[in-house]
Write a structure and sequence with these properties.
This protein is α+β, with helices and mostly antiparallel strands. It has 4 helices and 14 strands. A hairpin with a 2-residue loop joins strand 8 and strand 9. The two termini are about 25 Å apart.
């Protein structure tokens, strides 16, 4: 917390003409907004995923008078808090989708209060399948929201193995992790040596399709 607030303070000192001293009389200080959003990030994270997943869309709603008191620095304050939250999340090993966005808006009910809303976007954490056994040797397949594994050249992860079905299995991002589903393949799908119909993958798991083996890397 202290490191995050210091980071925000230093960033705002650089981008606000006159520094934070200019805002000493406001009812809601930017550092208090940053503190509230850091608390919401920590309390709102999803811990059932391989990499803890934190909210990445935040709205800090202020009383209209408090918003007006911040004047023309609102956009700078929101941007610097967002960048500092990204750095903080990365240091903690938390995933946050395609980036963190902070909006500071009016419409809050009480002067001096901060109302915080948060949400998650659709972006999964960076992930890939690495061919550790089979063809094409050493292939690396980036996984997005959804990927299909199989012999079909239109698959996002192509496996050149006659024992693999054309569309063998799918990977789909959910907030609990990457969900692997067998698509009724002839020879089944295996994870870490065990046959599966459906399972949530973790980083380091090895998915076997035919005789090909692909290691899951997340983050």
């Amino acid at each position: 917390m202290v490191d995050l607030l210091r980071r925000v303070e230093e960033a705002l000192e650089r981008v606000i003409d006159g520094g934070l001293a200019r805002l000493s009389g406001v009812s809601v200080h930017p550092l208090e907004i940053a503190r509230r959003l850091e608390n919401r990030m920590r309390d709102g994270k999803l811990i059932g995923t391989e990499v803890p997943y934190v909210p990445n869309r935040y709205v800090a709603r202020l009383h209209d008078g408090d918003l007006e008191a911040l004047g023309g620095v609102v956009a700078d304050v929101a941007d610097q808090i967002a960048r500092s939250l990204e750095e903080h999340a990365a240091e903690q090993g938390w995933a946050f989708g395609g980036g963190i966005e902070v909006l500071i808006e009016g419409g809050g009910a009480k002067k001096g209060r901060i109302e915080v809303e948060h949400s998650f976007d659709e972006s999964p954490p960076p992930a890939r399948l690495v061919m550790v056994e089979g063809e094409p040797a050493g292939a690396v397949y980036e996984i997005g929201q959804r990927a299909t594994i199989g012999r079909d050249p239109d698959c996002e992860a192509v496996v050149l193995d006659p024992a693999a079905s054309r569309r063998h299995a799918t990977l789909e991002w959910t907030y609990t992790g990457y969900l692997l589903r067998d698509l009724g393949s002839r020879n089944g799908t295996w994870v870490n040596g065990e046959p599966v119909q459906q399972t949530t993958l973790s980083g380091g798991d090895v998915v076997q399709v035919g005789s090909a083996q692909l290691r899951v890397e997340i983050g």
